[in-house]
Design goal:
Helix content: under 10%
Mean pLDDT: 75
């Protein structure tokens, strides 16, 4: 049974706000009719920064969440998501295997599917995106000025194998970006590790013109999260045996930045396009 939620500071949660944990559909009544979600209220809240520094908010719920959640007719146990607390971790860097760059992160939400669109999907959506280390987010690699974000943020986004670029959008703010990794020694079970929080961007899917999505960086929040929740670090950490699995020679983890865009772009002050609501 869990009692804490992480979101973005610019979502501005307040004590007494209603929180619905475990939604699947974007329509409130449809979730209720089919038994999704658990309604409770915010008991306490602690926020840090926004929009270009931290952009993280911790919420303590008045009631614990149920011990199970539904997907269709099936029920699954509720478990706390693992969090990446290591700023030097391979989890924050794009990685390659056999010469192929892997899309190593997933963003989920019920936000808009296109910039400047009013279309909201009926159910929870997901998209795979490659991580862009924080030191590569700004000029000369992308169009964001260096002053628009710091090391408490990182970027993500890129082509998702189709004609459109994968990205978060308005309405996804506060949601997670995570990496699926093996969480047992034989690799039979996988678990998500949250590496960041959806924060802001210019447009949606505009990486081709120099604007990837920007995320709060989970590894910068370790001390604040442990102090607020009072939970031991082991609650969130991956087993050491799992970490070692991803240190073998088959994978190439690096923080290599893309080709410099210097001389190809005109640097202009970024104007933040706010996401409108949190998950």
């Amino acid at each position: 049974m869990l009692q804490f939620v992480i979101t973005a500071a610019h979502c501005e949660p307040k004590v007494g706000d209603i929180v619905s944990v475990g939604w699947y559909f974007s329509d409130y009544d449809k979730n209720k009719k089919q038994g999704y979600g658990h309604d409770t209220t915010v008991k306490s809240v602690q926020c840090y920064g926004a929009p270009n520094h931290y952009d993280m908010c911790m919420i303590e719920l008045k009631d614990s969440t149920p011990s199970t959640f539904r997907v269709g007719k099936d029920e699954y146990p509720v478990k706390p998501i693992k969090l990446n607390f290591d700023p030097s971790s391979w989890l924050e860097a794009p990685f390659e295997k056999d010469g192929n760059t892997l899309h190593n992160a997933t963003v989920i939400g019920i936000g808009l599917q296109e910039a400047d669109s009013m279309f909201v999907p009926n159910s929870l959506m997901a998209v795979n995106v490659p991580v862009i280390p924080y030191e590569c987010c700004s000029y000369p690699y992308y169009k964001y000025p260096a002053t628009s974000l710091d090391k408490t943020m990182f970027c993500a986004g890129g082509w998702n194998g189709e004609k459109q670029a994968g990205d978060a959008c308005q309405g996804d703010s506060g949601g997670p970006i995570f990496v699926e990794v093996a969480c047992d020694d034989d690799g039979q079970e996988t678990c998500p590790v949250q590496i960041g929080i959806v924060s802001w961007c210019i447009g949606c899917g505009w990486i081709a013109v120099g604007y990837p999505g920007v995320y709060g960086r989970m590894s910068m929040f370790k001390k604040k999260i442990l102090e607020f929740t009072g939970l031991p670090e082991a609650t969130f950490a991956l087993p050491e045996s799992v970490v070692k699995q991803y240190s073998n020679s088959d994978y190439n983890f690096n923080r290599k930045c893309p080709e410099s865009m210097q001389g190809k772009i005109e640097v202009r002050q970024a104007v933040h396009t706010w996401f409108l609501s949190s998950l």
